[in-house]
């Protein structure tokens, strides 16, 4: 069961809600609806689900409805129509008390401008969630200290937020959310106010935290790089609608429409695409079965000047060039082992394109993609360049 | 012709109406007003005569000076001013008047705050309350303060109690307004943060909104206290004892000297109270 499930969720701001909603159902655009009714569609029939332990990123330009959507999920904003299920329970139908306990126990939020209480110390801020649940002072401060330590803020607990730098304040924001030990973290542009270096550091830490604590994270950002770094899956929003949901690779490689494509255009693909996305099925020969003659034939068939050699269990053994193979045939050498070369350039499936450049640059033969010693694919120079240009064929079945 | 148009409606008996209303209220609520008049009157007299006046002036001056010293961040200026100023009032033979005035100001301000802060909170939470109370506050503040004396006397007779009543009406609005403003000013993100962690309404109010609004509310309270003090002279017209009454009687007897001396007393008190309440705000903010 997904931990968050959103079904046909819409939010209309303004007066003519009913009329606007009708138009929403007719599939009219946000702009048309604003013209006709004077109401703004904040979120337009959003449907998605988030699995336990996933980092789900919602991305879109300013005004696309990201903040509205995340606030609908803990009902800081009341939905106009649609359902929100948290752990299978319909949040949109809950009364105040039930809603409050879901907010206390399951959902915690981290804010763009940190949202720390300036009159409280760091420790009191971090303990806030438990304080309002009437947890004893001793207990809540113990938990708050643990959370603060987790985000690397063991030292400053008795200072006020105003005395801390932005990055440290956001750590407090994160600690405050973690103190409650919620299942889900809702993060609305949580790192947008930080400068780039700190931001990257926080992204790394969030990934670490997530993998150690297995929290489910709903992360809002308007920054594609951030989305690609953090997201297990990304939902792209435009004018209140979700236009595409997919893994970072899917979004990069197969943008669902022009809008997504535009978004993706500027991204530095070399950092996102990895070896597995551009590798091709390799021509191979089996060292245990074949000799130079077969090797030569295969190379001729495929029109290549070298071929990779594997054993029965596809462990990569080396390669053979066409020249060596024909020499060997003339000299009637039967065993490939005598002519095999082993100075093969190899990369892992996860190696970024960026790092494949330098390797592929000074090798005459293709680069081998190996996983645990086994040959998975090959990369030729042409496909690297094509992938960078954004029009190469890219394999998604490996992603 | 045009005048005829204006005279088309005969004079509306507004004044008679209000007279009637005042009488009705006086009659109907006398079971409320009478005990208030008696008990609260006694209480005020007790505070002035059996508490404040019993404290030896030296001790009183020292206490005020100490408070001034500490709230102003251990600086001597305000403390020194308090000592000299209060001694001057004592020296001019106005100590008992001062104590009566202090009683009136403190009790009136206290009541204003007790009534004003909750009203301000109500306004900040409810659009309807805001829409209803705002014009009433405007009315209360722009109506000349003297006017309140008339129903005050009708309800409570003469003395300190109607003075407090009139002062309450005149001096409460700033506390209400600033409380409302202070709470509305709390940044949206902080309110969201409180909500997102599952606060109840009361928790949000006491743990987030009021602490954040504190310095704004204190600024309102400061204004309330100053307005209450300005009512002292006016209230003396309906028999409230204190420095104001000295000003009034010197006016009636055309004695500029005694009038100014009592006036100085009010100014000194005003400065001390103003600076102390302002500094309380700063040092805690
Ligand atoms: N309280 C509101 N009343 C009316 N319209 C609103 C309100 N809140 C948001 N909107 C509108 O809803 C749309 C979505 O706003 P939202 O704040 O969710 O966008 P966003 O994607 O978070 O943008 P940003 O990146 O600037 O934070 C916008 O058109 C906005 O004007
Ligand atoms: Mg936003």
Q: What report would you give on this structure?
A:
The complex is a heterodimer of chains A (399) and B (285). In chain A, helix 15 packs antiparallel against helix 16 (322-330). Chain A contains 18 helices and 16 strands. In chain A, 39% of the residues lie in helices and 22% in strands. Chain A has 2 domains: 4-106 and 182-267, Rossmann fold; 275-389, Roll (CBS-domain), CATH 3.10.580.10. Chain A is an alpha/beta fold and 399 residues long. Chain B is mainly alpha-helical. Chain B has one domain (13-54, 92-284): Orthogonal Bundle (MetI-like fold). Helices cover 85% and strands 0% of the residues of chain B. Chain B has helices spanning 2-6, 14-28, 30-52, 57-71, 77-91, 95-125, 127-142, 145-156, 160-185, 188-196, 201-236, 243-252, 256-284. The longest helix of chain B has 36 residues, at 201-236. The mean pLDDT of chain B is 90. The A-B interface holds A 71, 74, 76, 100-104, 107-109, 111-119, 128-129, 131-133, 176, 180, 186 and B 189-190, 192-193, 195-200, 203, 207-208, 211-212, 214. The site of adenosine-5'-triphosphate has 12 residues of chain A, from strand 2 and helix 3.
Please give the CATH architecture of the largest domain in chain A.
3-Layer(aba) Sandwich
Return the average pLDDT of chain B rounded to an integer.
90
Sheet-strand content of chain B, in percent, reads under 5%
CATH fold name of chain B: MetI-like fold
Small molecules bound? adenosine-5'-triphosphate, magnesium ion
What's the CATH C level of chain B? Mainly Alpha
The number of helical elements of chain A comes to: 18
- Distance N terminus to C terminus of chain B? 65 Å
